[in-house]
Design a protein that fits this description.
With 225 residues, the protein is an alpha+beta fold. It is built from four helices and 13 strands. The strands form three sheets. The chain has a six-stranded mixed beta barrel. Strands 10-7-9-12 form a four-stranded mixed beta sheet, with no helix packed on it. A three-stranded antiparallel beta sheet has the order 8-13-11, with no helix packed on it. The radius of gyration is 34 Å and the shape is flat.
Length: 225
């Protein structure tokens, strides 16, 4: 089951771009909690609190219990989307999606690759080529996991592993019915070194040198006349 973290957030009273800018000027990140057929809740969050969670593995599948300061409300949610500043690239708005532990949701879960040390293809000099790093999965929030393990130990060079050959944890299924490639073992690219033959230089023979000298001498005598 995915881990759960408690986050303290502040309530916001006003919506709109002006109110969001005012929240940022106050040193907070505006956010919203929505979903589960309930009204949206305007909140704000401390940047350092959010960044700490973003830098911790499993952020996208982490269940947050949002405690709204000044109220008795607690909201169980996932981080659904983050908007970034176009220049500074720092978070400027966050969307949290309410979840019900007993209802199915669609969520992106990353793949975790194991068995590389024992992989047949890698031992032969092949390289693990990751085609898909995460996939949309349908599950109940109570069955959610931080990552889906993909064992590549049996893969040989030029072989692939597909979604259809993955045994998902109990309660999970891929959102897409179409099979897709997760990873392949590619043959190592050998460096090709081109050798250029050295230029050949024509060296005149002794006879040719004597003839050239005579011609030069005749030309010199003619100039002196």
């Amino acid at each position: 089951m995915a881990n759960k973290v408690t986050l303290k957030v502040q309530k916001r009273d006003n919506s709109g771009k002006g109110a969001a800018r005012a929240t940022r000027r106050a040193g907070l990140i505006p956010a919203v909690i929505y979903g589960n057929k309930q009204e949206a809740e305007l909140i704000s969050i401390e940047p350092k609190v959010l960044l700490k969670q973003m830098q911790t593995r499993g952020f996208r599948t982490r269940q947050f219990e949002l405690e709204i300061e000044g109220t008795n409300k607690k909201e169980l949610a996932l981080c659904q989307a983050i908007q970034y500043h176009k220049v500074k690239d720092n978070p400027i708005h966050v969307d949290f999606l309410r979840i019900d532990l007993n209802k199915e949701i669609t969520v992106e879960i990353p793949f975790k690759f194991v068995g590389e040390e024992a992989c047949k293809g890698i031992k032969k000099g092949g390289v693990l080529n990751i085609v898909t790093r995460d996939a949309e999965v349908v599950c109940k929030a109570s069955d959610m996991v931080d990552a889906i393990e993909v064992n590549v130990a049996d893969l040989d060079v030029a072989e692939s592993i597909h979604s259809g050959s993955i045994t998902l944890p109990k309660g999970l299924r891929f959102a897409s019915h179409e099979q897709f490639t997760i990873a392949t073992i590619a043959a190592a690219v050998q460096e090709v070194v081109e050798t250029t033959a050295p230029e050949t230089v024509d060296v005149p023979s002794a006879t040719e040198e004597k003839a050239a000298a005579k011609e030069a001498e005749k030309a010199e005598n003619a100039d002196n006349k």
